[in-house]
Amino acid sequence: MLLKIKNPDISNQPQTFVTAAVTAADATLTVQDIAGFAIAQFLLIGTPWTEKCEIIKTHASTAPTGSTITLDASYKPAYAHPSNAPVTKILYNTVRIERATSESGSYSDIAGAGGTAILPDTEYTVYNDTAGLTTSWYRSRFYDGTNVSSYSSVIQATGVKTNSFGKALEKCKILFSDPDYKRVSYDEWLLFWNDWQRDVSEFKNWSWQQATDQSNTTTSGVMSLSWPSDIKAEEKKYIRSVKINTQEWLEYLDLPDFDEQMQGLGYSTLSVAASTGDTELTLYDVSNFAESGSVIIDGDTIAYTGVDEDNLQLTGVTGITAAGHDADDGVWQSTEVDTPTHWTVWGGTLKILRAPDTTGDRIYLYYWKGITESTQENSVTIIPFYRTALPYMLWRAHQSDGDEQRASQYRLEYEQGLQLQSNRDRGGNRKSFTLVEDNAPELLDFDKGYLKIARQ
Fold first, then answer.
1. DSSP H stretches of helix in 158-241
2. ∠199-202-206 over CA atoms, to 5°?
3. Nearest 5°: phi and psi at 393?
4. Residue 325 CA to chain centroid, in angstroms?
5. Do 294 and 334 meet the contact criterion of CB atoms below 8 Å apart?
6. Which of 29, 232, 409, 439 has most Cβ atoms within 10 angstroms of its Cβ?
7. CA angle 251, 337, 328 (to 5 degrees)
8. How far apart (Å, rounded) are the C-alpha atoms in residues 120 and 44?
9. Environment class of residue 400 by beta-carbon count within 10 Å: exposed (0-12), middle (13-18) or buried (19+)?
10. Among the listed residues 82, 68, 71, the one whose alpha carbon sits nearest the alpha carbon of residue 20
11. What Cα–Cα distance (Å) separates residue 186 from each residue in 126, 165, 373?
């Protein structure tokens, strides 16, 4: 398995030029300016990433002075270099490559703890992992013998997919003619990608965002439900419908109608936590509870013999379980629980009415899910028309670069493409696009390098 890692970005590193020709094994360099150079630094001498460019190192204790840079005896030039050849600081001289059997597995160095030497005469450093498999996962970081860079993102040997941020990034940098992030930074490209995902998601409730949540089950006396973890937002407009087992669909009620349905029911909430052995329950309201009987709290049936309206308590209580109950837990008169028929969003919480009289029935929530924000190049989008990311990202890039004419052109292309997809989608009434994944090896742009994996 051939691993190809783009060499470190040196665009913002100090650079000078030699004022006298350099011969192989010279111990010093005579340069125009020593600003930004110090002891024990790695340097590129020669035009970066071209033939005969090489890595050298400043002396460990003799600091640059005047126009002279003294070199480490183990890192003298191997080639001759003409006067005016560039000398550029480079933070690292090796790259450490790690492999794992799964994306979140344990990674270990495959090129030794010291890594493999950066190849300065080309933009990429290549390493042949003879033990690598198509199922292997990789990551890399640069190393100078002491310090390491941050990790690249991880990538599987099959390469990044066509619907990934890494693939969009690769194409955008080519179309924008900015391979080294000189005009638009990596973080800006990632921001544009995530903004594109949000813009598409907020445009409408798409058919491909429809999902079903089955994580809730009924608990006798409990009317609150948990929101799906990946819902667009915890709002009513993103819930399509609610159903319990094979019963009829629950009817949605606006909050005023829901409140009206609650009027007169024996329902309140605990104002004080209740523990096993307590002989009273303190509520916010006791006006609708029978003089004696039983209540249900979170599936726990508790008997009581009286109502103290002055202290807002149910008295003569027996049957509180060892687990107890928290303040604000719902309290239902046991005769009021029944088969739920309605649902609403009340105080930011999903509610069903009435509270169920059974425990363990499956609750189905049909909803529109949101889009997970991408954090690395192999992050993929669930948006099936992922190619609309390119005009959006290029619109934002040209806008950031001050080219309003090109930005407007790409914006128009994006908006027309999005409208076309919306017309075809029809909220699920028509079949939406099927995502076709390209599993061929692809280029992945790392935080501080690229990794291209090819089969031999």
1. 165-175, 186-203
2. 110
3. -65, -35
4. 37
5. yes
6. 29
7. 95
8. 7
9. middle
10. 82
11. 23, 11, 15
Residue 382: closest CA among 232, 233, 238: 232
Please say whether the beta carbons of 80 and 53 come within 8 A.
Answer: no
pLDDT in tens, the chain (456 residues): 889 898 999 989 999 999 999 999 999 999 999 999 999 999 999 999 999 999 999 999 999 999 999 999 999 999 999 999 999 999 999 999 999 999 899 999 999 889 999 999 998 999 999 999 989 999 999 999 999 999 988 888 887 789 999 999 999 999 999 988 889 999 999 999 999 999 999 999 999 999 999 999 999 999 999 999 999 999 999 999 999 988 889 999 998 999 899 888 999 999 999 999 899 999 999 999 999 999 999 989 999 999 999 999 999 999 998 889 999 999 999 999 999 999 999 888 999 998 999 999 999 999 999 999 998 888 999 999 999 999 999 999 999 999 999 999 999 999 999 999 999 997 543 333 333 333 333 333 333 344 443 333
What is the domain partition of the chain in residue ranges?
A: 94-161+444-454, 209-368
Report yes or no: 31 and 43 within 8 Å, Cβ to Cβ.
no
Q: Which tokens hold the place of 58?
A: 């400043």
Distance from C-alpha of 94 to C-alpha of 148, rounded to nearest angstrom:
10
Evaluate whether 160 touches 378 at the Cβ level (below 8 Å).
yes
Amino acid identity at 75: Y
Q: What is the DSSP letter of 295?
A: E
The angle at the Cα of 77, spanning 76 to 80, to the nearest 5 degrees, equals 150
Residue 431 CB contacts under 8 Å (≥ 6 apart), including other chains: none
User: What pairing do the DSSP bridges indicate for beta strands 251-252 and 342-346?
Assistant: parallel
Dihedrals φ, ψ of 318, to 5°?
A: -140, 150
Residue 101 and residue 64 in contact, taking contact as beta carbons nearer than 8 Å: no
Element (H, E) at 410: helix 404-425
- Are 281 and 298 in contact, with CB atoms under 8 Å apart? no
Closest by Cα among 455, 456, 376, 1 to 161: 376
Token pair 């027996």 is at which residue?
A: 318
Tokens 């002279």 -> residue: 68
